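Support request, priority: normal
Reporter: lab tech (M.K.)
Component: structure prediction queue

Hi team, I submitted a job for peptide chain release factor N(5)-glutamine methyltransferase from Arcobacter roscoffensis yesterday, and the status page still shows it as pending. I've pasted the exact input below so you can check whether something in the sequence is tripping the parser. The sequence length should be 274 residues. Please let me know if I need to resubmit or if it's stuck on your end.
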Amino acid sequence: MTIKETIKKQSSRLKYVTHIPAKEVEILMMHLLDKNTIWLHLNYNQEFTKEKELEKLIKKRETNYPIEYLINKATFYGENFLVKEGVLIPRPETEILVENAVEIIKKENRAFKVLEIGTGSGIISVMLALLIEDISIIAVDINEKAIELAKQNAKKHNVEHKIEFRLSNLYEKVNEDIDMTISNPPYIADDYKLPENVKFEPSNALFGGKVGDELLKDIIDETYERKIKYLLCEMGYDQKKPLEEYFKKFDIKKYSFYQDYEKFDRGFTVQFKK
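Reply from support: The job had stalled in the queue. We restarted it manually and it finished. Here are the results:
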């Protein structure tokens, strides 16, 4: 069977799992063949030689198992990152969080010390290290598997000299002076029913407590106590009002919220008075 025929046959099996079934079959084929899109399209009429291997991947994908875990790769900010089961998959909206941090750091125009809480696969820290010349980063996570993966991604992008990875619960192992804390923490309420594909991701990277914003509030509290100037976080789409109310407890110079690509409230930036 040719590559073209295989795509047609297998994509029908994924039509209830994804809105781009043919594209996903191509992604799985490129992963197995170690080839790019151009090669695949130029060789549509060639025999496909890895049908058994593809069959296994398609069968797993039919269960809503994330394609990123199948190919151990995800794209973020135009760069390729390693991903693996047991570590949260990067989301496109987190690019906005990175952009907001870059804007602040460039305006400050000085050496900057950043703490990332809940680094996961390391995408935020790695991108900041790539985009900002004079930066040093401490990246923490409670997941040992995440720390190891983040280190691999830092090495892959040649920024390991700018980032120190630590196994730590929030600020537990951090005593240095920090200019900015950035985080995409768990913020989903414990009783929220997840989409099928998200159920394969680690629950401790998703659920933030009974209400969902408990961990966010812990981060806000400790960032303020440590007299850190900036705090940037992702949050749930329905958490703007309660967090705005919560901010009244603190001596804040200014704060702002931002929306994601779907126009849902998705995060905030706080500048504390120092």
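The mean pLDDT is 94. The chain has ten helices and eleven strands. Let us know if anything else looks off. Ticket resolved.
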